[in-house]
């Protein structure tokens, strides 16, 4: 009877973890470039009471055996890198990736991070940076006399210069792809870090060798589906309640034994 309570306890713990994942998805429903998480479950080790195929007697074997499960756990959380909806902003420095790839940015400690958030700004040094101040890799410098900025679908950055300076190409966006983007580690601030699981970065220009294309004046919204997450939340709540009822039922059975034997 104690075993059943322990099994139900693992269910409570696993469903609580899944609720945390769902809550984080809902909290980031308006986060630009956010990719939803999914909790992946696995069953725990089994108690082998009777091995399948063991001798039942001199002439017969057990066809199925007897295995008692010990519960479940959340073995991993996985980022689902499907495309989010495009939101028009009409801001010339807002850029969305339509397809595969990440913007590479340099962090304050010199390491490289990756993001899908294309809401760029111009720093006091005239460099394109993220909302958190991380400059793009390679750096794109905006001239002080630039009247307007044009970003092509292939990542070409052009500026219309003042005083009749004409149109001048000032930089080039590059995109970084990974063999396993789900293996990237989210580090907050809409940034990801490379890991052994993600594979080595594959750098190229937008539209080249499977990389996505860029769209100026729009941003990629979070790919969280609120209705889907609400359904998952209700399902998780019900599973949690069922596991708590299993504990209560096992406790009632133990109380019956104590009171009547």
How is this structure best summarized?
This protein has about 260 residues and is an alpha+beta fold. It has helices at about 1-25, 225-260, and strands spanning about 35-45, 45-50, 65-70, 70-80, 85-90, 95-100, 105, 110-115, 120, 130, 145-150, 155-160, 165-170, 175, 185-190, 190-195, 200-205, 215, 220. It is about 25% helix and about 30% strand.
Order of helices and strands: HEEEEEEEEEEEEEEEEEEEH
Terminus-to-terminus distance: 15 Å
Summed over residues and divided by their number, the pLDDT gives a mean of: 93
Helix proportion of residues, in percent? 10-25%
* Number of H- or I-type helical stretches: 2
Write out the strand line-up for the largest beta sheet, numbering strands in chain order. Answer: 11-12-13
CA gyration radius, whole angstroms = 27 Å
Please state the structural category. alpha+beta
Give the strand tally.
19
Major sheet attributes: 3 strands, antiparallel
The total number of structural domains is: 2
Strand content: 25-35%
Characterize the overall form: elongated
Structure write-up:
- With 261 residues, this protein is of the alpha+beta class.
- It folds into two domains: 2-81 and 224-260, no CATH class; 86-220, no CATH class.
- Helices cover 23% and strands 31% of the residues.
- It has two helices and 19 strands.
- It has helices at residues 2-27, 226-260; strands at 37-43, 46-50, 66-69, 72-79, 86-88, 95-98, 103-106, 112-115, 121-122, 128-129, 146-151, 156-161, 166-172, 175-177, 185-188, 191-193, 202-204, 213-216, 218-220.
- The strands form nine sheets. The protein has a three-stranded antiparallel β-sheet with strand order 11-12-13, with no helix packed on it.
- The model has no long low-confidence stretch (mean pLDDT 93).
């Amino acid at each position: 009877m104690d075993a059943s309570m322990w099994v139900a306890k693992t269910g409570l713990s696993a469903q609580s973890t899944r609720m945390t994942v769902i809550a984080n998805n809902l909290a980031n429903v308006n986060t630009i470039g956010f990719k939803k998480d999914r909790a992946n479950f696995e069953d725990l080790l089994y108690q082998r009471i009777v091995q399948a195929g063991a001798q039942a007697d001199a002439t017969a074997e057990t066809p199925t055996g007897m295995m008692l499960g010990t519960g479940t756990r959340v073995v991993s959380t996985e980022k689902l890198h499907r495309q989010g909806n495009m939101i028009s902003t009409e801001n010339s420095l807002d850029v969305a990736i339509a397809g595969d790839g990440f913007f590479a940015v340099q962090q304050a400690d010199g390491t490289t991070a990756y993001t899908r958030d294309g809401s760029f700004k111009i720093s006091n040094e005239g460099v394109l940076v993220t909302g958190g101040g991380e400059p793009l890799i390679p750096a794109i410098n905006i001239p002080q006399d630039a009247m307007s900025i044009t970003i092509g679908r292939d990542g070409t950055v052009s500026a219309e210069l003042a005083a009749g300076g004409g149109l001048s190409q000032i930089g080039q966006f590059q995109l970084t792809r990974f063999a396993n983007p789900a293996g990237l580690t989210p580090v907050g601030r809409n940034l990801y870090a490379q890991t052994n699981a993600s594979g080595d970065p594959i750098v190229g220009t937008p539209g080249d060798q499977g990389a996505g294309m860029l769209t100026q004046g729009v941003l990629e919204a979070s790919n969280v589906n609120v209705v889907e997450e609400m359904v998952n939340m209700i399902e998780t709540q019900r599973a949690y309640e069922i596991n708590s009822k299993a504990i209560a039922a096992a406790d009632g059975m133990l109380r019956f034994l104590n009171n009547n034997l």
